[in-house]
Give the backbone structure.
Amino acid sequence: MVPASSKLPRPTAIAGNRRQALLGVVVIAAAIAAAYFPALRAGFVWDDDTFLTANPLIKAPDGLHRLWLSNQGIDYWPLTSTTLWLEWRAWGLNPLGYHATNLALHLSCTLSLWWVLWRLRVPGSFLAALIFAVHPVNVESVAWITQRKNLVAMFFALLSILAFLQGDRDRAEPGTPLRRPGLWYACSLAAFALAMLGKTSVALLPIVLLGCLAWKRRLVLRDFLRLAPFVAVSAALTVVTLEFQRRAMDGAARHAGAIERILGAAAALWFYLLKALAPVHLSFIYPRWIVRPGDPRWWVPLLGAVALTLALWRRRRHGSRALLFAWGFFCVALLPALGLTDFGFMKYSLVGNHYEHLAIIGVIAPAAAGWEIWRRRAAVASGAAWPLAAAAAVVLTFGALTWRQCETYRDAETLYRATLRANPAAWMAHNNLGILLAEKGRTAEAMGHFEAAVQLNPDWPEAHSNLGMVLQQAGRKEEAMDQYREALRLQPDFRRARIALAALLAAAGRFPEATVHDQLAFVPADTAAAHCELGEALVDEGRISEALVEYRAALRLDPSCQPALDRIRQLTR
């Protein structure tokens, strides 16, 4: 028999809680469906081709084996790629199916977040989940198919937290046969590994798990030891990802010292905090900052972040513990994306909305907890309508902004035009929009965008080559050749530009130079001998300055190349 003193929940109370939970699920699902409906009409944008539609591993029958057990992929996120491999066989080139899956994953992440916050006894957990569901910053992670990796990683990261918390609870309450802390621990570790295989942006989850334990109770040595396998998984897969990214990047994303990176990271923290609180003027690509350590203004964000951290730490026993935990989570979740190490997107911008997908919880959760405290106090004073009205206003406003933001993902041209309205200096958007317009035969408009891309980033060979292409189509062949030559000066192994230049030279009757360019276009890699051969052709045409460029390129590849040394001495007398 159960002792009379035992406080068991009444069946009616349990049923009531279940009904409330089910109602909450319905409300969140309806909010996502309403706010994200335009995403179902969205198409493929930007690198959806390299990641999905033109990815040979996604199309290959043995693609799964190669995605998991080879280095042939763009990145090593095989779990995310596996979902796309499977869906390719169901949807093919129909984007609707991929977008529907992303929405289902977003719903799963939102419900898991609600569950995690509830388990941590965070007040206002439902409102936090509802705001997360419709927050406009998350549109980039949901409406952009390539960002499936964010959704997969977050879903399994949240499952890892839930399993870890359950195992810790079972360990603290032994004596029941159904309690299996070891099994929950294993499930948590497996879920974390799957999250890392979705995207390594969750690499610092072991710190988050430690924070969750610290939120509940005092830490002991055993807690640190239990996290050692998580750290090992994180370190191993992070090393693999960094190697994949190093191989994929054609040159450094930027050249910055340690001080510049730290200052940029601090500025990014405040940028993301602002976008979480006021998600307006969102852009697919934000202006790329130029961090100047000599400018005192760039030290303000760092000093502000340090001051806020110290203030929260000093007041942690006087009501600021929750804010300290939230601020810590926000910083830790963002740390991999703050620019302390390079990643490909940093060529275009040092910040991006999709990098805030997980970290934004650290802003939403304390805001919802504060609202819940307000609501309870207002209920005592018979003024509960005001908090409810405020929450409804925020959710409806965010939902409307999310709807509008989803519209920008209708197709690539819409996205690039929206990006240029928000950031006219986005040279990548100018270039890619120019490509789309050129494919549609709108040569003059495309030329304007390529010229803007070249002006904004004169060191980008692709923009020069694309400008050469439309100049060639417009009959301005000499100008086109100049652009192809500039592209090759910046990137000597640019095969497409070299083939186009060879064809123009041959059409102009300049066969010696055309022949050399044609031969160079099909060598596996540039060699000193090939550059010397091209230099000889240029000398024959009397173009000494260009010949010297080729001979110096030969010396960069082979400093002992005697023909290049002899020619440079001869031509520079």
